[in-house]
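re: ur question from yesterday

yeah so i grabbed the chain u mentioned. its 229 aa long if i counted rite. heres the sequnce exactly as i have it in my notes:
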Amino acid sequence: MTDVKIGESWKTPLSAEFSSPYMADLKKFLLEQKQEGRRIFPRGVEYFRALDLTPLDEVRVVILGQDPYHGEGQAHGLCFSVQPGVRIPPSLVNIYKEMQTDLGIAPVRHGFLEHWAKQGVLLLNSVLTVEMGRAASHQGRGWERFTDAVIRAVNEQEKPVVFILWGSYAQKKAAFVDRSRHLVLRSAHPSPLSAHNGFLGSKPFSQANAFLEEHGREPIDWQLPATPE
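ran it thru and got these structure tokens back, copy pasting raw so excuse formatting
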């Protein structure tokens, strides 16, 4: 998968992953799926969009998702984010609600989160591809191993980072993060099924910024532009 776009800062830390047999198997699987006429989201050039937009040495916050959206035109390589013009997904609606409660930021009318990614918010899904209309269809194919390596690379950075882990899946995946150096914020998932069980009212955005400022790092401007950048 060295033919797809990925940020330069990640290439050396992840070189062993890209040259490993499991990654070759994953690439073969994806090519076969496409040859069979299956539609894969996001587009190939966007598989590593999160890494392309957020250089390793600039990561300040990590938000972990699970799977890309599997609907037409939604996924573009950033967890919880959708392309301009696409209806805002329910989990992101709740994220916006919590931002308003936490920081007084009124929700915007789009779900395009590149503004966060360009500031150092790594919006990383555990699995980076999915077949259209088939949720979780690419789980267990190797992506989880690759994204574990991404999280390890961030964990090894000297600068303190905030890990925002929504739901048990994200919390288990990043359980090894060094809490003596980094801040780990855990709560329920923003999904409508669980948001009222501890996500709403958890104030992750203000907590993240307070930690960054305390450690001499710039806070995140969570206010999204009114129209997608």
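noticed a couple things. The chain has a mean pLDDT of 96. also The longest strand covers residues 61-65.
anyway ttyl
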